Give the backbone structure.
Amino acid sequence: MTTRIGSKNKKVNSKGANSSSSTTSSSKQYPEVSIDGLSSPASSSMRSKLLHSHSDNIPAEAERSKENVTVTVRFRPLSQREIRQGEEIAWYADGDTIVRNENTPSIAYAYDRVFGPTTTTRHVYDVAAQHAISGAMEGINGTIFAYGVTSSGKTHTMHGDQRSPGIIPLAVKDAFSIIQETPNREFLLRVSYLEIYNEVVNDLLNPAGQNLRIREDAQGTFVEGIKEEVVLSPAHALSLIAAGEEHRHVGSTNFNLLSSRSHTIFTLIRFCRNCKTC
Ligand SMILES: Nc1ncnc2c1ncn2[C@@H]1O[C@H](COP(=O)(O)OP(=O)(O)OP(=O)(O)O)[C@@H](O)[C@H]1O
């Protein structure tokens, strides 16, 4: 049986700078509902709850733990450029689940989890994403989906860099660690990596794979002709992603000197020959 763990980067269509991005993760055994990423950051979450006063309670822990979809918000610190320009923080994390507005204290939004500007990506991964990876390795499809305006920190969170690896490299390493820890099972991992640019799907692992079609069959939705590469180690998977990044559309915006101008979907497909769940 194959299971998929997908990770996606998506910009929301919103004017003005905002230093927070959201991560949605889901784990379920049936097809997903689509997520509307076009509303404003504070109201974009399917799971966010507007709290009208300081005294309102956050959703009960028990209620949240039943959900297949969780929504988290990560605030990045102001950049040197923003500090120089005298930018001020408008929204901030009040504890682990509440987002508040500096100018309107009566407005607050509750999320499954809120991370402040000093939180490391490792911590975001452990709290908000790791369960989707361990679930996928057990046979439950999962998606980690990052969205936010340009320069809000999606690439930093999902890809990261050498000093602070993002959710994708951490997930790939985790998947291989799980395989090593379960020698009685036979796994095979494959990866695919695509971009959606101007509503056109391009295969980032195969430069010839341009303008691919999205199809549906009894198993679900798939991209016709997408290349799926077998990966043998974390370094192998990460080198494929790095090669794929070379083919990606990037540019500059007023808010981000190196802005990813496309949405991307990285998929890790796990095949297990002798798992109980298969
Ligand atoms: N948590 C963080 N801590 C420190 N710096 C961060 C953090 N998040 C983002 N940054 C920095 O902020 C800048 C913008 O982040 P990033 O490129 O990840 O945004 P983005 O949402 O991917 O933007 P775009 O949609 O334009 O590609 C980068 O210089 C990045 O290094």
